[in-house]
Amino acid sequence: MFGISPLGWLHTLGSLPAIPAAVHMFARHGRIVPRSGPGVVYFVSMLIGATTVFLVAHQSVSYGIGTITILLLLAGYGVGRLPRAGRIARYFETICLSLTAFLLALPTITEILRRVPDGHPLATDLKSPLLIGFQASLLVILIVGLTAQIISIYKQGQRASG
Known about the structure:
Elements: H1 6-15, H2 18-29, H3 37-56, H4 60-78, H5 86-115, H6 129-161
Helix pairs in contact: 1-3, 2-3, 3-4, 4-5, 5-6
């Protein structure tokens, strides 16, 4: 179904829980919260998705996205554990983990549009105006979202010190 191999299904189903976990954390906290139940689900699912991409990828850009996702995920989850990380750690953590959500959404939208409906996909190639429009929309959401997150963290810091 949808031209997905058994390894592809492992990749897809393994990373799928990251989507509702991210949506939940963004809606509830305005960011991905690493040290929470949904944060653990997000980490494990993203790690499964990012590592298994090397087994299923057909385009070289996928290897780059997988590598960058793993590095951002480890940096985002690791920075809060560093001694003396300070306030900058929250900014760094938020930026890294929001970028991982973007790197999850980008290929997810691309693959959905290029595979659904089965046999007659909405986008037939990577230059499809529909696909480019969705990808551009994701980029705008990332920029607006990161800006809002940074402002929110700054305001929280002002209230705490003031």
